[in-house]
UniProtKB/TrEMBL annotation:
<dbReference type="Pfam" id="PF07762">
    <property type="entry name" value="DUF1618"/>
</dbReference>
<feature type="domain" description="DUF1618">
    <location>
        <begin position="207"/>
        <end position="310"/>
    </location>
</feature>
<dbReference type="InterPro" id="IPR011676">
    <property type="entry name" value="DUF1618"/>
</dbReference>
<protein>
    <recommendedName>
        <fullName>DUF1618 domain-containing protein</fullName>
    </recommendedName>
</protein>
Length: 400
């Protein structure tokens, strides 16, 4: 069977214990391609992600933060067990004169790595991103390939303070190996930006705030110009942004509508369609899928066919052709990866179009990072390096 052209990638990665990961000797990352609507999960070996993270750390599991269409994945991993930070002793007295001493320590910071899935040569790399020394705000990081490709990239976070007309792009360049700041305008100074996703599209990074709208810029520009597009916001499908809105189901069957942002420069959203789940529930394809007449949870939009929208419902992920009101795909979710009842959301997965090297004619490529005959993709790591990768530069330069 031919490899899929796109996959539904889980945000949550896994880090099995050594010997239990099913990976070949020397491999540190596995991507077993599953045809949609099944979910594909990144599997990391302890060489890339510790099985036992440092207990005080905030992030206990690895996760995929962002992706670039060229095949780049930005992955956050928890920090490994380290020597205990003795911290700082602080003494205070209460109103009764009772003295108390407490120890203040640092919370271990997560680590970041960019994996390049696009190369089918021995120079394929997984590049560690150096610690920016506590300068990252909320892990609202995106990754974007450099113009001209060549494996070069930039990791970027948009940082703004409420009330400030100026914001900052915190940028790491793989070419310079340095973090740097770039000043940009803050389109909504009084707004507290909360981003649900960061998307690389059309040579720009797009920060998606599901209430305020979209921010976009080219971080490679000497003086990036920040663009703002008001709501609605949504996924990228068939080369343009799509907004899918789902009405509340408290007064009957939910309704789903779609709008398209064909030209971001106009900031105009074009209405595409609206469909009620009452029509979908009444269809033979829905009944044949054995799905209950309950309101589902919106998951994602098909990256090539915007008429197909995917939903979560009772441990299943299914796709609906909204114009035809027909269920076109339905698969049970892996019980080991299932969420607690009521905890499903579109933030758990995202559509990822595979680089050309993942096509069927490359099934037998034998290289450092390749699609093997059983459709497993591996990245091999040189453990003699500080972190991971085959051809890594040691990035230890301070913020410029």
């Amino acid at each position: 069977m031919a490899s899929p052209s796109w996959i539904i990638l889980s945000r949550k990665a896994t880090a099995p214990a050594a010997g239990d990961d099913g990976l070949p000797q020397g491999a540190a990352l596995s991507l077993a391609l599953a045809a949609p609507p099944r979910v594909t999960t990144v599997k990391l070996r302890p060489a890339a992600c510790p099985v036992e993270p440092d207990p005080p750390c905030r992030h206990k599991f690895p996760c995929v933060l962002a992706a670039d269409p060229s095949g780049l994945l930005l992955i956050l991993t928890p920090p490994p067990l380290s020597e205990r930070d003795e911290g700082e002793l602080r003494t205070s007295r209460d109103a009764r004169g009772v003295e108390r001493t407490i120890r203040i320590g640092r919370v271990p910071r997560p680590r970041y790595v960019v994996c390049d899935l696009s190369s089918a040569t021995a120079t394929a790399t997984a590049s560690p991103v150096p610690d920016p020394r506590e300068l990252i705000f909320n892990n609202d990081l995106g990754v974007i390939a450099a113009p001209g490709g060549g494996g070069r990239f930039m990791v970027v976070e948009f940082q703004a303070i409420v009330g400030g007309r100026e914001a900052t792009l915190l940028c790491f360049s793989s070419e310079s190996g340095k973090w740097a700041r770039k000043k940009v305008a803050n389109p909504l100074p009084r707004w507290m930006w909360t981003f649900s996703d960061i998307v690389s599209h059309g040579g720009k990074l797009w920060w998606v705030d599901c209430v305020a709208g979209l921010l976009a810029c080219d971080p490679f520009a000497e003086e990036p110009a920040m663009e703002y597009v008001q709501l609605p916001a949504g996924d990228v499908s068939n080369g343009v942004f799509r907004c899918v809105e789902m009405s509340c189901a408290s007064h009957g069957a939910p309704k789903v509508s779609m709008r398209t942002l064909a030209d971001p420069s106009t900031a105009e959203w074009t209405f595409e369609y609206e469909a009620s789940f009452s029509e979908i529930w009444a269809g033979d394809s829905y009944k044949a899928a054995g799905l209950p007449n309950k309101a589902p949870v919106l998951a994602l939009v098909h990256p090539d066919n915007p008429d197909v929208v995917y939903f979560f419902l009772e441990q299943r992920l299914f796709g609906v052709d909204m114009r035809a009101r027909e269920v076109v795909e339905c698969e049970p979710l892996d019980p080991a990866k299932s969420q607690k009842k009521g905890s499903y959301s579109s933030g758990l997965v995202f559509p990822f179009e595979l680089p050309p090297m993942f096509s069927a004619e490359h099934d037998h490529v034998a290289c450092a990072y390749a699609i093997m005959h059983n459709k497993q993709a591996y990245i091999r790591f040189d453990r003699s390096r500080v972190w991971i990768g085959l051809l890594l530069r040691a990035y230890h330069t301070p913020l410029s």
